[in-house]
Automatic annotation (TrEMBL):
GO molecular function: iron ion transmembrane transporter activity
Family label: Belongs to the ferroportin (FP) (TC 2.A.100) family. SLC40A subfamily.
Protein name, UniProt field: Solute carrier family 40 member
Basic and acidic residues bias: start-end ranges: 1-20
Pfam families from the UniProt entry: FPN1 (PF06963)
Transmembrane segments: 70-92, 104-128, 140-165, 314-335, 347-369, 381-399, 472-492
Keywords of the record: Ion transport, Membrane, Transmembrane, Transmembrane helix, Transport
Length: 524
């Protein structure tokens, strides 16, 4: 009875809150977004992404330096990082959904910056003692493990922040405004991420090339320590200054309380007397124990999160986007380590990665224009296959005899493909924002990142199996095949929704050619 009364009170509070929200929503024009707080959001996100992108670029160089002529350490680090996100991603999404915003902010920034500081400190120690592997293998292994674990925790913390800002706050802040506002915010947020990807490798590459690896590790650790406080102040200012975020926080607290009360309001089962269970059910006790274990697993937060994800209308676009992570055709750990093994200077790799990010940054400008003319769904189709066409250059580099030319072809193909890749990414994210309910938004975001990391993990496992940089061409072919499968899945999704793929009648040049080729009635 107490549980029923408490549940009734919670439902009444939620209903009252909805009615108040409806009364507040009576005016046609919502309050305008204050530019100061939007800027605070962008600056705070830039600082957070700079740390993540700097570590993402630097760790490959650290690992190839610690274990030359092998991708093993780099691949192991990538596998641990991706595996942790694949396993704990859905749980992180549910954790973000179940907590109030202030707690999420504090835990996110604390764990992210503390983890990166610890990882940077471990790398500094490894670099200071250059012959540590031969002198004391146990200490060397402990420091490498510490770097891997701290990096994985930092990535999980970054995931929580990404879900909060990209999947939740951007949508909440744009509620009640025209759709172009959300499209613009998505483009700016993605532009911030790509700007960090553009500038941080260039600066890090210059530090490594003209100073030392040690200097880059020291700079990174100091940056992570200092910026944590600035980021927290900026995000708390946004939380306090945007009423829509505070109202969304109240709604999520009510949902959390409702779930807790419903969870305790379970019916009490009457158990059989000892010794009668087998005769009454006809199942042996062992079978019953297995069934209980399966029931617990099926009701776990991990399984329920995946169940929510696969029930979404946008599951195929999500899977297509995730498949693009099963690739080495990006300026990630494996390709960076391979390029350095082939003798490409570090600063050239950094500049190449910067050019790649610049091309991707252009996607944040082109996407709103295409989306306003073609729709979100069809923009995703055109952007995907443009990316696929550019990757043909990477495949062609396999048959080029000169290593340096092949390496530059590989870099050029990857860089050119970023325009289509990031436009496709924006398209899928906006489809999820539009079609996933508020109560499932963070959970779906967590599962999406988990799926992406699982496929990223498979790419690193391939890197462990094919660890010789000479065999990078095998990884290139497998990656291109996976990208092709992803394109087919998205095309199937579009056809299922629209019942056609192209509007041939809207291509004037094609119509003119067909008109000339087809015989008229008078000539028949």
């Amino acid at each position: 009875m107490e549980n029923e009364t408490e549940l009734r009170v919670v439902h009444q509070e939620e209903q009252q809150h909805r009615e108040e929200g409806e009364e507040e929503a009576q005016p046609q024009n919502p309050p305008p977004l204050r530019r100061r707080f939007v800027r605070y959001l962008y600056v705070g996100y830039f600082l957070a992404r700079w740390s993540a992108r700097t570590w993402e670029f630097s760790v490959a160089l650290y690992m190839i330096h610690l274990w030359p002529n092998s991708l093993l350490l780099a691949a192991i680090y990538g596998a641990i990082e991706s595996g942790s996100t694949a396993i704990f991603g859905p749980i992180v999404g549910q954790w973000v959904e179940g907590m109030d915003y202030v707690k999420v902010l504090r835990l996110w920034l604390l764990f992210q910056n503390l983890s990166y500081t610890i990882a940077g400190g471990a790398v500094i120690k490894l670099l200071l003692v250059s012959d540590l592997k031969s002198r004391n293998l146990a200490v060397f292994a402990i420091l490498v493990v510490l770097t891997n674990v701290a990096g994985a925790i930092g990535v999980l913390s970054t995931l929580a922040g990404t879900i909060l800002i990209e999947r939740d706050w951007a949508v909440v802040m744009s509620e009640g405004h025209p759709p172009a506002v959300l499209t613009r915010m998505n483009s700016v947020i993605r532009g911030i991420d790509l700007s960090s990807k553009l500038l941080s490798p260039v600066i890090t590459g210059l530090i490594i090339s003209f100073v030392s690896l040690k200097a880059s590790a020291i700079t990174f650790a100091a940056w992570a320590t200092i910026t944590a406080w600035v980021e927290y102040w900026l995000f708390i200012s946004v939380y306090s200054g945007v009423p829509a975020i505070a109202r969304s926080n109240e709604r999520r607290i009510l949902r959390s309380r409702t779930k807790q009360v419903e969870g305790t309001d379970a019916p009490v089962s009457v158990s059989n007397a000892p010794g009668t269970e087998e005769s009454s059910t006809g199942n042996p006790p062992c079978r019953t124990g297995i069934r209980k274990i399966l029931d617990r697993v099926s009701k776990s937060s991990f399984i329920s999160a995946w169940r929510i994800y696969f029930n979404q209308e946008v599951v195929l676009p999500g899977v297509s986007l995730a498949l693009l992570f099963f690739t080495v055709l990006s300026f990630g750990t494996l390709m960076t380590a391979t390029l350095q093994w082939e003798g490409i200077p570090t600063y050239i790799i950094g500049i190449g990665r910067g050019i790649s990010a610049t091309v991707g940054l252009a996607a944040t400008l082109v996407y709103p224009l295409m989306q306003s003319r073609l729709s979100t769904l069809r923009t995703g189709l055109w952007s995907f296959w443009s990316q696929w066409s550019c990757l043909l250059v990477c495949v062609g580099s396999i048959w080029v005899k000169k290593d340096k030319i092949a390496s530059y072809m590989l870099m050029a193909g990857v860089a050119a493909s970023r325009l289509g890749l990031w436009m496709f990414d924006l398209s899928v994210i906006q489809q999820m924002q539009d079609l996933v309910s508020e109560s499932d938004r963070c959970v779906v975001g967590g599962v999406q990142n988990s799926l992406q990391s699982a496929l990223d993990l498979m790419a690193y496992l391939l890197g462990i199996i094919v660890s010789n940089p000479k065999d990078f061409w095998i990884l290139t072919l497998i990656s291109f095949s996976t990208v092709s499968i992803a394109g087919m899945l998205y095309t199937i999704h579009l056809y299922r929704i629209r019942n056609h793929i192209f509007h041939f009648e809207k291509i004037p040049l094609l119509n003119k050619c067909l008109f000339k080729l087809l015989p008229t009635r008078g000539n028949m």
